[in-house]
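Many introductory courses stop at the sequence. We go one step further.
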Amino acid sequence: MKDMRMLTLPLLFTLLHSPFCVSVTVSSSKPKVEVHEHTDAVLSCEFRTEKDQNPRIEWKKRGKGVTFVYFNNKFTGSYAGRATIEGATLTIHSVSQKDSGEYRCEVTASDDHVNLGEASVSLNVLVPPHVPSCEVPSSVFVGSGLELRCKDKLSVPPATYRWFKDNKALAATADAPYSLDPHKGTLKFQSVSKNDAGMFRCESSNSVGAPKSCVAQQLKVIDYPLNMTILIAGAAGFLMLTLFVCFCVCVCKRGGCCNKHKNDRRTRSYKPPPPPPPTRNLKRYKPTQSFMV
């Protein structure tokens, strides 16, 4: 039994110092972190080394490029003064949406056989609803189409929307004169009537915080003025006259009257070739009779 122990100890010592032994190891107990805006985010990073008791610790953030968060035992950029580190665990204080992204913890143990290890942590900063921007025109003509828009670009996760008319929530029913899109925040009317006038407002909400609403705005539905009606009627009459003239021209072409006029014009414009000049009868020259003296 004593001989077995004596053989086991050198073997264990050899395995621990073997180049094939896994040295520095890095991991995270919580690789996905979700926190509310303006709270602290703790990005955990645990490591274990073989020999090196003071390994180099770095934190980086991935985006369009790679930026340093913690380098050479100090914080860089916007993290200076609002982040702390304990061991290799990083804490960012009062986070904002700009802090969302993927972070990487890197531990370098130069005395170990495998001297580099890393772990990734994703941070998602949740943002409660903000007061949405609402587009409601002050007036619209009867019978025209209309689209009201509502948008909250800051909330995370993205907000869903509800529209209210005179403080009553609008519902998308089969017989409603409008259509609603809760994800895009639109309220559409195909043809506005007098009954659609009222005070309109929009409310945005998500799972993070209380809903927020814009200030209600008055929508008036008005009739077309008399001069506008006359102008529209005149334009319609002119259009009908133009269509009638075009119709007559087409009928004339198909009926052949145009072709007949073309033939008449061709007949009038046709000139026969001139006849050849008449042949002149030239009298033969007869010499005069000479008289002998």
